[in-house]
Design goal:
The structure holds 3 protein chains of 3 kinds.
Chain A lengths: L5 E10 L7 E11 L4 E5 L6 H8 L7 E6 L2 E2 L5 H10 E4 L13 H11 L8 H11 L16 H13 L5 E5 L7 H18 L2 E6 L2 H7 L2 E6 L2 E7 H6 L4 H9 L38 H5 L5 E2 L6 E2 L10 H11 L1
Chain B lengths: L30 H11 L1 H18 L1 H8 L40 H37 L1 H16 L2 H16 L8 H32 L2 H8 L4 H9 L4 H24 L11 H9 L6 H29 L1 H4 L1
Helix pairs in contact in B: 1-12, 2-4, 2-12, 3-4, 4-5, 4-7, 4-10, 5-7, 6-7, 7-10, 8-9, 10-11, 10-12, 11-12
Chain C lengths: L3 E14 L2 E14 L3 E5 L6 H9 L7 E9 L2 E2 L5 H7 L4 E4 L3 H4 L6 H12 L5 H14 L5 H4 L9 H13 L5 E5 L7 H18 L2 E6 L2 H7 L2 E6 L2 E7 H6 L4 H9 L43 H4 L5 E2 L6 E2 L5 H11 L4
Parallel strand pairs in C: 3-8, 3-9, 6-7, 7-8
Antiparallel strand pairs in C: 1-2, 1-4, 4-5, 9-10, 10-12, 11-12
Helix pairs in contact in C: 4-5, 4-7, 5-7
The chains are: A alpha/beta, B mainly alpha, C alpha/beta.
Amino acid sequence: MTSPLLKVEGLTKEFAVRGGPPVQAVSGVDLSVAPGEAVGLVGESGCGKTTTGRMLVRLLEPTAGSITFDGRDITHLRGRALRPLRRDIQIVFQDPYGSLNPRHTVGSIVAMPLEVNGIKPPGGTRRRVQELLELVGLNPEHYNRYPHEFSGGQRQRIGIARALALNPRLIVADEPVSALDVSVQAQVVNLLRGLQRDLGLTFVLIAHDLAVVRHFCQRVAVMYLGKVVESGDREDIYAAPRHPYTRALLSAVPELGEGGQGRIRLTGEVPAPTDPPSGCRFRTRCWKAQEICASAEPELVPRGGSRQAVACHFPEPESAHAEGEAAHGAAG
Amino acid sequence: MALPAEVDLNPAPPPAEPAAPVAPEVAGRSPSRLAWARLKKDRVAVVSAAVIVLMLVIALGAPLIEWAYGIGPYDDFKARLDRFGMPLGYAGGIDGDHWFGVEPHLGRDIFIRLVYGMRTSLLIATAAATLTSVIGVLVGLAAGFLGRWVDAILGWVMDFALAMPFMVFALAVVPTVALRFYGPRDDIPPLFRGVVLVGIFAVFGWTGTARLVRGQVISLREREFIEAARAAGAGLGHMLFKQLLPNLWAPILISFSLALPSYVTAEAALSFLDVGMVEPVPDFGRMINKSINYLQSDPAYVFFPGITIFVMVLAFNLFGDALRDALDPRSSR
Amino acid sequence: MSVPYLRVENLTVRLRSSDGVVRAVNDLSFSVARGRTLGIVGESGSGKTVTGLAVMGLHDPRRSEIGGRILVDGVDLQALPEPERRRLRGGDLAMIFQDPLSALHPYYTVGRQITEAHRVHQKGVGRAAARRHAIDLLGRVGIPQPQRRVDQYPHEFSGGMRQRAMIAMALVNNPKVLIADEPTTALDVTVQAQILDLLADLQREYQSAIIMITHDLGVVRQVAHDVLVMYGGRAVEQGSAAQVLGDPQHPYTWGLLASVPTLRGPVAGDLVPIPGNPPSLVHLPGGCAFHPRCRFADRTGGASRERVPELLPSGQAGHLAACHLPAADRRAARTETGVSA
């Protein structure tokens, strides 16, 4: 395996709360992303995936842990030292309405990263911006238009063009399609796939939609209450989830096709991050929980010789790959 | 405001996606242009704007009007007064030479004094509104965007400014300041008086704009386009003036246009109370102050400055409201 | 098939807005029997929410024009005076919204809101009895410790709990028609699954007719007996869930089915999106509203540009579709989109 482009170890973020103990939104996340790879970070609201993404692009200061980018520790870079990093890691936001300045033209929105970094591209800023607009499937003539004149899908393309302006190596995409209409979602997913393929970009996709992640990411990490509970290759995670939460999550998605792996209904809700359960954080909703789950926290480690790491004392048995393929065949 | 020179008004649909579903007939318009279009459709706005423009023209062109009218603001026409000092003729001495009549006792022409009074009034109000807006915007931006201790300190200063009684402060400070620079017997130049007035307005007037801007900045600060700029490595100046300020023009313009008439009345009030402009400078407040003594004997004297200041303030207020509706159409629904 | 309890005939809704007249719903007809669920599927601006609000009678009469008939148990709601309609609303007719915070009053306890809805519609119910009923309902919609929760305020509830509380409020008078407008869109999948199960259980118990308004085909597949696909304010396809999802007849339905990413099947290729964007209801394209995005539009001999296609029987009995594409060519065309029958 090549050395990872991004390596995250024990990443933790605490938020101060007025008149109370701090809330741990992210508690010790490990993640590694190889160059050219797309890794999906999935989980339900409040699991810490967005906070993790904000720390990766250094919009939030990590409380503990380390982020290594291209072999360099970037966890606590500040001010001037952060600048070159900003060029390498960019972010695409969820809200196609809030993420573009309504008073700026598309041209100045996409040119903003060049402007603040004092970059004069050969051939001029305008040319570069028009190249970028073309790259994301927009009409370069629309340089002088304002965001309100575009649809949600087109705005999301503008946001992607802005993220590409500095030729980043890693893009963190935070729910890039969840605010879009179904028929438009597919357009943007395809665009991102194309960028990964053609430009060799590395992606961290943060999403709650497991199906979208499956269509875009080669590797997946599932988060629950501030921790990664399972991570591995797409094929393994979707065909043979080993953590009970991953199984429950997959079976909860209403599917178009027939069948599915038996319905699992979780009861109750995610506990408050102010007072997480002891031991395994999922145990309060887990049908397999036993005494050890309350006393010892399971480590996220590959179990049974596979690359699929799972943080569970009683993981689901590892199913042979062939079995997963058979399931594919039956549904398709 | 900077508007793009080239706006594509007749766009071809992009190859991948047809034109945006939102109101295709207004394609190629900036938010400011849309507001401008709404403003032009508003009849109240057009009429009040016309009145404001007329008053500005009168104020700016006062010397020209004086030349055409043939009478200056300091010329007296004692011959037009009777032996009690009251104007001869009807309604305060209105005739072809003196359109609005003459002042009792001094015999100066009321029309040309009103023309010059408008100049004084608008000059001070505009200067005060501009200065307070600039201070308010800077304080609001800093307090809203930087937050923490900057916000705490500025908020404290703001509360302090709001807690001081404006009138008492003005009544106490103006004479004191005048005495500090000029002797009790000296003539105080009108320019100095004006500067002191604008200064007092600035001390008190910035809080409204500052609060407004601060509130707007706090809600904008959370928007993702600000985070996008930060993620691209933008500095503080870019954040404040390139990202935030363009989104604040609407509230700033509205508060500016509503502040103007309040300074017109405040300046008149201070002059009325003898702490504003003084004789012989033509001024609305002074005119009303003096005319009060003749309320019964020469009602026309109070009528003309009174009605002018009323129309002026009304026009500014109506225009300010119309501007708000045009810039923020949701607020009117 | 049982007798339809709710019948909507030729519903037309026009809304006045600053941009012009919004032709939100055009000539829409459907019916729902008790104990059945109709799924209304569409993207933003397809008119699906407006339809739900029209059935409830929640459009501001000063800004809207509603044509057609809405019959509940044979009574035309459009002909009823407003006080009687109000009596139905929250009684026999109830609605669940996407955002529970907009439906729950922030300053009253959840319990008080439920008991008030109860006592307004059923005179003579005592305070204590209404409270017992509220606690019972909260328990039934899956809120733990209902005796304690009943005295809490909406902000003390989590998103999923609020949705449950709103469902409890909607169910307090045993509504015969329940309109659920994207009830789970804002929720996480595990909570969504709980809420959908809950609605199904309650339907079995009360035999309500449910209209499920959603953009999620998976949700429709799971809960709906019948499906109505809306586009540009019109029904483009209508039939039983098995017909519409299993043997879709309209190119828009094909497009939707092909563009949705799935948890199964191959992932090697790109998704097949529908090009373009949903149309604005103020400036609908002429002819078939879908024609600018339809890859088969040029196979209709220009008809799709000129005439609005009629909703005609196609496929099996009871299956309707509004498409100019000749029925004989449809199967082949569908295969091209990659949607299998």
